[in-house]
Structures are given as C-alpha cells and as structure tokens.
Amino acid sequence: MSVLSDPAAHDRVRAVAWRDGALELLDQRLLPAREQRLRFDDAAAVARAIRDMVVRGAPAIGIAAAYGVVLAARARFAADGEAWTQTIAADLERLADARPTAVNLFWAIARMRGRIDALPAGVDPLPALLAEADAILAEDIAANRRMGELGAALIEPGRALLTHCNTGSLATGGYGTALGVIRSAWAGGRLTAVCADETRPWLQGARLTAWELVQDGIPVTLIAEGAAAHRMKQGDIGWVVVGADRITADGSAANKIGTYGLAVLARFHGVRFMVVAPSSTIDMSLASGGDIPIEMRAPAELLELGGTRVAAEGAQAWNPSFDVTPAALIDAIVTERGVVLAPDAAKMAALMA
Ligand code: MRU
Question: Is there an atom of ligand 1 within 6 Å of 255 CB?
Fold first, then answer.
C-alpha cells in the first residue's frame, strides 16, 4: 500500500503500553532530547506520573489510569484478600485526584470500577481488569482512526491546517485525535502544510507535536502562539484543528490554554474551527463550559524555562492549564460517533443518545 493511501504509515509512536506485567510510559517531560521509557508497578506511582506530566493528553491519561487500576487490584488482592474490592477505593481516589480537567481520567476509572463490581467474589481480578484496560486502549485507537477519516473528509484539499498542543499518539492510545485528522488528511494528499503552535508554557507543540510529526514523516512548521493571527491573515489556513479535555452538554470544549484565543482569531479571519475528541471526552453531566474545573499549574512553569528562571525576579505568574471555547465558536465537533456541525445542546444530546 502506498504511503499516500495508508494513514497508518504515519503512526509509529506509542506512549502507553503494558509490558511484562508493568505499565510502561514514554517520559514526555524529556522529549525530544531523550526517549526514555519508565516502568510502573504500583498505582500511586502512576498517579504521580499523571500529575507530573510523564504522561499527558486526555485519552492517554485515562488509559494510564486504567492500567493503574490493574496494578492497584493486583496489590490489593494479594494483600487484602476478599476485602480488596473495598480497599482499592483509596487507590481509585488517588488516581482521580491526579489532574482535574480531562474527564477521560474519571471516565476510565469509573469504567474500571464497573468491571470490578461485576467480578465474582474471590477470583483473581488481574485477567479481567487487564483485558478491560487493553480494551480501553484498543477502542481509543479505533475511535481515533474513525475520527481521522471523518475529520479529514471535512477538509477541502489544498489548504493548510493549524493545530495547538499535542493531540497525537503521545496524547492518546495511538494515532491521535486532532493529529489523527491531520494524519488522515496528510495521507489523503489534502494538506499543503501543517502549522503547530509552540504551546506555552509547557511547549507541547514545539517539543511533542513537532517530534511526533517528524517521527512519522509529516512536515511540520512551528509558529509562536503570538504568530497565529498573522499566519491566518496569509489566507491559506483552512481549519484550526484541536483536541479537547472535556466537552460539555452545550458543545463547549475545554482544551489547552490558548485554544479559546485561536477560536476567536479563526472566526475573525474566516478560518473554520474543528474540535476532535472521542465520546469518552464528552461530559453530559455538565451543562456548560463554565462548569468545567480548570487546572491551575505551578507559576514556575511560566517563570522558568528548563529549570532556569527567565522572568524578572519578583514577578508573579497566573498559569491556568486550560481554557474553554464556547460552542458558538466551534464549526465542527468530530467524534467516533459522528460529526456535529455548529454544535448546540440539542445536537450534543442527539449524538450521545
Ligand atoms: O496538559 P496536557 O498536555 O495534558 O493537555 C493536553 C491537551 O490539552 C490536549 O489538547 C487534549 O488533551 C486533547 S489530546 C488528544
């Protein structure tokens, strides 16, 4: 099969894997300088890895937590016997506390809890829970491939795309959400260029998206966030394509800080705005985007660069990790269940029914 017709040819990176009885995570704090995989065999360490951004990106966080539940079950079953289904609650809570915004974390833990509750008393939980975590991983990749096809079909050939943060194989089970659309569109020969925002302050665009696209042979052009308006003014960007950490019942989407600003700029410049996320990112229990808890991260992430202070001594920093784009600024939400154009509460309810 030629590279042009095979999107899988542009998908070589895997960040989360179960190998030889432990969870293996590609340490995303070190990329692109170093490719180092860390092994985890206890749930508390997995929770710390999520909090500390060894693994990040909404679906990848959920998948890592699912394997964290497997590790917790193995330890609790060995230590507590039949009481393990109660004692594991503390591990589930610790995992859920790791980060607040991406709903995939809570979705995956709830799904694993459901599997635990369905287990017959006294049996070794490991095979069933490992199968469940493997299913979450496999379903995520399948959803991403489907979204890749659906999203790419919206993109008229001959345009450039702009993306923000990292939404690729590093942020998911594999293939990616917004980056999955980019992979599919690139493989289909639809794109003239892929622009990636550097994504301050954690540089997911410069460090991760650029690395991932280079690994997969897709040319990428990095821009500073501040260059986005000027880039859109050039006239060749057809769509801004981003992922999401939580989408609410009204079709609003939380994503990496800076996404909302891009949506405002896109509307002004007549550029369309696409949010790509699996249904595990949709939280129908929250009526509107204003209800989404926004993670505040350490001021040091902004005041320092690679551990060296760059801001003037004495300056303070305000460092929200996410913002919320209102549905009115979104032209399309792409999920594995289908595409919602000009999202609103009624269309989101129909999608999730
Ligand atoms: O803080 P991060 O790196 O976990 O933030 C990730 C994002 O905002 C992604 O855009 C989002 O999770 C979608 S990833 C498929």
Answer: yes
Q: Report residue 221 as tokens.
A: 């052009």
Instruction: Find the 39 Cα to ligand 1 centroid distance in Å.
Output: 22
Nearest CA residue ID for atom 8, ligand 1? 256
Question: pTM (2 decimals)?
Answer: 0.96
Helix, strand, coil % over all residues of the chain, rounded to 5: 45, 20, 35
My answer on whether omega of the bond before 201 falls inside 30° of 0, hence cis, is yes
Q: Where are the beta strands (DSSP E) in 4-111?
A: 16-19, 22-26, 37-40
- Give the CA diameter of the chain: 65
Each residue's pLDDT tens digit, 207-232: 999 999 998 889 999 999 999 999 99
Would you say the CB of residue 165 lies under 6 angstroms from ligand 1? yes
> What does the pLDDT look like over 29-46, one tens digit per residue?
999 999 999 999 999 999
Query: Three-state SS for 334?
Result: strand
Distance between Cα 41 and ligand 1 center (Å): 25
Delineate the domains of the chain, giving CATH numbers in brackets: 7-141 (1.20.120.420), 146-352 (3.40.50.10470)
Supply 225's token pair: 């966030």
